[in-house]
Automatic annotation (TrEMBL):
Family: Belongs to the short-chain dehydrogenases/reductases (SDR) family.
Origin organism lineage: Eukaryota, Sar, Stramenopiles, Oomycota, Peronosporomycetes
Gene3D superfamilies, A to Z: NAD(P)-binding Rossmann-like Domain
Transmembrane annotation, as ranges: none
Organism: Phytophthora nicotianae
Gene Ontology terms, MF aspect: oxidoreductase activity
PANTHER family assigned: RH59310P (PTHR43899)
Protein's name according to its UniProt entry: COP9 signalosome complex subunit 4
InterPro entries reported for this sequence: NAD(P)-bd_dom_sf, SDR_fam, VLCFA-Steroid_DH
Protein keywords: Oxidoreductase
Length: 324
């Protein structure tokens, strides 16, 4: 077999030996590029199809999920419970929390479920922080934190046109809530050093918003924390989704490229304890790889054209409602 391969490569070798130095250098560079691509493909195959999921028992007894009554958050809580982990559900509406708790217990009666109604728009108030701290102290052994709560634009809009209350919510739900929840959970995890899992990530928001810089900033912050706490056996991750069929994304039907919350949650939980930055659903990872392979100016222009088109349609719908 080896002799046959060498025989097939002999003409190529002869051509290279007779070629100018520039051609040889070009061929060598081409081989390096192809080798790098092959290694990336093999690495991705292992990451998404062969690498075994870690047991959640090594992280701790409890998983905490913010924004846990709908969409990705609820699906994440369900998946943690399916894996045998007790869950704490944090969200704004008490009735929806109770409904989510009852649904989880009906499917997985062996787990425990705690709930706490929290308006993360008021997360800067001492009373809200005290309530969160009390709940974390109550469950004690938190092994997984999914910072899922967040808010996005109703439709693509120029920043100066955003209402003041929406700007306030963007900061409180997407930045302050994540920071405060991390601060509440992290000290106990660091003290235990039992390889707990602290998960930070922009779940529920489309990765297309990376044009706005939000994902890059959050991913960079996660990378810094991951390096800071690696020696204490605390693993910090940022999971980057593309579109998922949720109310926030305004997509009703799931597909191969736009998974249901349950499908995405299974992929997300399966990647716990590994990479610091990852898009856990492999079709999303492929999309992001293709986007990042494109020139930045081209990606920015395409995103701008898409967002302007969506904005135009949204404004047209709003105008039609006003005229009814």
């Amino acid at each position: 077999m080896a002799d046959r391969v060498l025989e097939l490569l002999a003409p190529v070798q002869a051509a290279l030996e007779a070629s100018p130095l520039a051609v040889k250098i070009t061929a060598a560079v081409g081989c390096l590029v192809l080798s790098r691509l092959a290694l990336q493909v093999l690495g991705s195959v292992y990451t998404f199809f062969l690498r075994p999921a870690k047991s959640l028992k090594g992280f701790g007894q409890w998983g905490v999920v913010t924004g846990a009554t709908d969409g990705i958050g609820k699906a994440l809580a369900m998946e943690l419970a399916r894996k045998g982990m007790n869950v704490v559900l944090l969200s704004r509406t008490q009735s929806r929390l109770e409904a989510a708790r009852d649904e989880i217990l009906a499917k997985y009666p062996k787990v425990e479920v705690e709930i706490l109604a929290v308006d993360f728009n008021r997360v800067d108030e001492p009373s809200v922080r005290e309530a969160l701290q009390k709940k974390m102290d109550q469950v004690k052994d938190v092994g997984v934190l999914f910072n899922n709560v967040g808010v996005s634009y109703d439709f693509p809009e120029f920043f100066d046109q955003l209402p003041e209350d929406r700007v306030d919510s963007l900061i409180k739900l997407n930045v302050a809530a994540t920071t405060i929840m991390t601060k509440l959970v992290l000290p106990a995890q660091a003290r235990r050093g039992r390889q707990p899992e602290l998960r930070l990530g922009p779940h529920g928001r489309a990765a297309a918003q990376r044009i706005l810089g939000h994902q890059e900033v959050r991913g960079a912050a996660n990378a810094v924390l991951a390096a800071e706490y690696a020696a204490k056996n605390v693993h910090i991750q940022c999971h980057v989704p593309m579109f998922v069929s949720t109310k926030l994304a305004k997509i009703r039907h799931s597909s191969f490229m736009v998974p249901s919350p349950a499908t995405y949650a299974r992929a997300s939980v399966a990647q716990l304890g590994y990479d610091t930055l990852i898009s856990p659903y492999w079709p999303h990872a492929l999309q992001i790889w293709l986007y990042e392979s494109a020139p930045t100016w081209l990606l920015a222009k395409a995103a701008m054209m898409t967002h302007l088109s969506l904005r135009k349609r949204a404004l047209k719908k709003l105008e039609a409602k006003k005229n009814q």
